Structure formats: structure tokens, C-alpha cells
Amino acid sequence: MDIDAVDPPLLHFYSYNLLLLLLVSVVLFLQHHRRRRSLQVAANGATGPGNHRPQSNPVLGNLVAFLRNGHRFLDWTADLLAAAPASTMQVLGPLGGLGYCGVDTANPEVIDHIVRANFPSYVKGARIRAAFADLLGDGLFLANGRLWTLQRKLASYSFSSRLLRRFSSRVLRDHIHRRLVPFLAAAADSGEAVDLQDVLRRFTFDNICSVAFGVDDDRSSALLDDHRHGAFFAAFDDAVDISFGRILHPTTLGWRVKKLLDVGSERRLRLAIAVVDEYVTAILQSKQQRQSGNSEDEPDLLSRFKAAMEEDEASELGRIFASPEAKRRFLRDTVVTFVLAGKDTTSSALTWFFWFLAANPRCERRVYEEVTSLALAPSREADADVGRLADGDVESEDGYDELKGMHYLHAAITETMRLYPPVPMVSRVAVHDDVLPDGTVVRAGWFADYSAYAMGRSARVWGDDCRVFRPERWLDGRGRFVSAEAARYPVFNAGPRACLGKEMSYLQMKVVAAAVVRRFTVEVLVPAGSMDMAPEHEMAVTLKMKGGLRVRFKNRARAA
Ligand code: HEM
């Protein structure tokens, strides 16, 4: 194996845990041999057509195969699921049932069962919660049960607020015309290559910070200057990557010991979270001072959330986080959760989208024709006073009616995320024994993961051309976009825990794509001939392109 090709968290995984794990495995295997056999017999006893298992080692389960394929984990899982009779498989950790066991699926019926029909039986598991708890605390992402229900209600209410929708579209317009387009125009003029993934990641980070807590106002007051904002961006990235790296440890023991000793990645995580906390605390304080406790008229997400909480002071959530410190901590967790949700998701989709357009000139032409025929009239789009324009928009809630007619663009973005879902895998844990619709047995405490990545590559679901980028598959005879049921396209999750930012994301992705394609051609810089091969991705919370996407922009107006 080429060790240079292994991601740093996986290297970690090898060096610290493998030896320990092998020793412990053998001892425990012998000790628990009996129990393992009885568990297997029980699982097989309840069999239907399911209970498919990839080949596993009697002691180490699927661990060896995992180590061999860890660097291509998503593709490996997709291949295994394609070979499984019902696109669902049981995965055994070491010790055939005592280690980390569960099921993986790319079967729409099974996904629907886990995320919707049998929703209360599948929760966010202890392993993921432990890994991300230091960063996300009690925020919506990690919450289960009553705490999740209460937060979800407030968050749904905040996301649907008319004030927030108008604010987020105004911020978007502002960021595109004041920051993104001028930056790309300068890059086009100079002919310099840029890493488009990095540009988009910074753009969406700034955008979500503004939407989540109106950071622009604070930055202009020099309280939170660009330097501090940049440090926040870097620290947030570190904190997410290291928290994710924790999941790759076979037991939580490895990283817990390092945390206790405050060494290595755990020390870096502590320092990164301290930077995040300092920044968010400054935001909360400045908001508090400005609003004197009244967040009613502020349009950003945090203020909408606070207002909803204050309106409902006697509510359960208010009682749970009753003291000022508990409330401050909870609002901090909420901010961090929203930033995580919006930070790398849309930028991931857009990065892959621009790669697909460059690799498919016919699709790029169709997007260009659509956005130039339907785009905002240049006088409106180029209006320098973007704030006034959006505020004065009464005909449409988001001020972007034109986007609704962009069916091909919508299809191209949707098709991109079918093949490269920004959140490639979602994980749950079964709270009790269950039998999935295909007959696969799930034991209490097992993980139940679904792979949107494998689903997008499933010939059973998408036909023989499942690996081909073909936006037309989403269009009806009249060229209108037709959506798929959520369980067939679980890119935004489905059921009660479906993504709350879906609408906002499509708005952002379409506006950015239209603004760029309309003005520029994007040349992807790769060695000759390699556009036929899709770039590799990193193993991370979101599907990042490995090494970024180096491109050169050309201004269409100049080229004409
Ligand atoms: C292309 C962009 C996006 C995709 C593909 C996406 C996908 C997802 C997925 C798969 C989940 C479920 C995660 C899980 O349960 O483990 C989720 C949850 C969530 N998303 Fe998104 N997301 C996107 C953008 C956004 C944005 C911009 C926001 C808003 C800031 C957002 C807010 C949320 C929230 C609050 C949840 C948690 C819902 C809950 O647990 O009840 N998302 N998203």
C-alpha cells in the first residue's frame, strides 16, 4: 500500500490503534467466543432475503478490508452495496458482534424505514455525538429525543421567517456583486490560476456567517476584523477535521487518552475550539449590546432563533437552559451548528458542478443559454445598491423569481449532487432490535448508515447510465425539472430530520452558478487528457475535492 496516499486521520488510525486493537481483539475473541456465536445464530435465524455480509475475518470482522480500502471508503462501500442483493449489508467489527457492528444501505425502501417510517427507533449514535460534542455541544445536529424536538421546532420556525429569507437573499446578492464577481474578474484579467474550491469555501463561509449572525455589521465596526474572521475560518476547519478524525479511531479510548494528556491532535482541537468560542462570544456580546436584549427586528438566523426562544420564555427549552450561562452556551452551540451546516455543503456541490460543466461542454452551453436568456436584467443585477433593491422587492420573497424558470440549471446542480452528494453518508444507531424491509436484522446499538454516494451510483435506482452526468434525466418532455422522492435522492436527508437549509442552498447555488457562468468561462487546469477521469475526493464530513480545483477564468465579454 502506498502510505503517502493515506489521509492523515487514517495514518493516525494505523499507527496508534492497530497493534493495540489486534491484541485486545484476540484476547476478547477467545473470552467471548460463545456470545459471538449465539448472536450470529440469532441474526441468521430471523433471516429474510437480507442479512447479506461482505466476506469477513472470524476475529477481525471487516476491519482488515476496511483498513485496505479506507482511502477509498465511499467507493468501496458503493461497490459492496452494488454487489449486495438488496443494496443492504451487515458489517461486522472485530469479535463478530462485540465490536463496532451495523448495517449499510443504499436501498430506498430501507432508507425510508430508517429516516421516516421508523424514525423514533434510529437516533444519532454515541460515537458521533462523542466525537463532535466538544465542538457542537447541545446544538441541533447532535441532539436526540425531546431536546431535538424542541430545537427543531424553533429552528424550522426561524428558517421559514420571511425576514430571514429576505435578509439571506440580500446578503447573497451583496456578497456576489461586491466580493465574488470582482475577485473573479480580477483573476480573469490577470490570467492567474485560482483554486476554485478554496474561493467557494471562503465565499460560503462568509455567507453563512452573515446569514447566521449578521457578521458584516460587526466587521465594519472593527470589533471582528478580517484577521479575526480569517482565524475563525481556519480554526473552524481544524475543529471539524479533528472531530471527524475521532470517528475513525476504532474505540473512543484512543482519542480520550490524548485528550486527557492534552497532546497531539486533541491539543490542536482544544486550541481551535478556543478560537471558535472566543469569536462566537464576541458576536453574542456585540449583539447583546446592540439589541439591549431585544432581537425582534434583527433578520439574521441567530436573532430569529433568539426571538423565538424569548417569545416562548416559559417553554421547556427556556427551562432547560434557564441560567444566563446555560442560555449563552446554548446559543453558542446553535451558532456553531448553523455555521457547520452551511459552511462546506454548498461549496462542495458548486465545486463538483463547475468540474462537470468543464468536462461536459454541451451541458455548459445549455446552462449558459438558460442563464443568459432568463437572468436578471443587467441593470437590476448590476445595481450597486443591492440592499435597496432586495428590500424594495415586493413581487417575490427572495427577489429571484428568474431562478424559478432555470430548470436546466436546477437539474444540472441536482445531477451533480446525485453523483457527489455534499454529505455522502448519514449515520444513525438503532435503539432496539429491528428487521429492515429487506429482512436484514439490526441489533440494538448497531449503526444503521445510509450512503447517498452509493445510492447515486446504484444502477438499480438510476439505470445503467447511473455513473454518467446527465442533467436531462431530471427534465420532463417540456424541459421542466421533476424531483425524485427523498428516499431515492437522500442528499438532503428525508423524514422529520431532513435538512432545513435545502431551499436556501438551492438559491445560493443557482445564483452563484448563474452569476459565474454568465460572465466567465472556466477552464479546469489538469494535465492533457485527464478530464476524462473524475478528481479524487477527501474523506471528510463533506465531500471535498482532493487537492482543490485549479482553474483559470476568462471574461466572456472580453473574449467576444
Ligand atoms: C447543498 C447543501 C446541503 C446539503 C446537501 C445538506 C444536507 C444535509 C443532510 C444530509 C442533513 C442530515 C444530516 C444528519 O442527520 O446526519 C442535513 C441536516 C441539516 N441541515 Fe443541511 N445540507 C445543506 C445545506 C444546509 C444549509 C445551507 C443549512 C443552513 C444553514 C443547513 C441546515 C441544516 C440543519 C439545521 C440540519 C439539521 C436538521 C436536524 O437534525 O433536524 N443545511 N443537511
From TrEMBL:
UniProt key word Magnesium: no
Coiled-coil region: none
Binding residues for heme: C499
Keywords in alphabetical order: Heme, Iron, Membrane, Metal-binding, Monooxygenase, Oxidoreductase, Transmembrane, Transmembrane helix
Presence of keyword ATP-binding: no
TM spans (from-to): 12-30
Gene3D superfamilies (alphabetical): Cytochrome P450
CDD domains attached to this UniProt entry: CYP86A (cd11064)
Cited InterPro entries: Cyt_P450, Cyt_P450_CS, Cyt_P450_E_grp-I, Cyt_P450_sf
GO biological process: lipid metabolic process
Example of a GO MF term: heme binding
Cofactors demanded by this protein: heme
Family from the record: Belongs to the cytochrome P450 family.
Protein's UniProt name: Cytochrome P450
Organism: Triticum aestivum (Wheat)
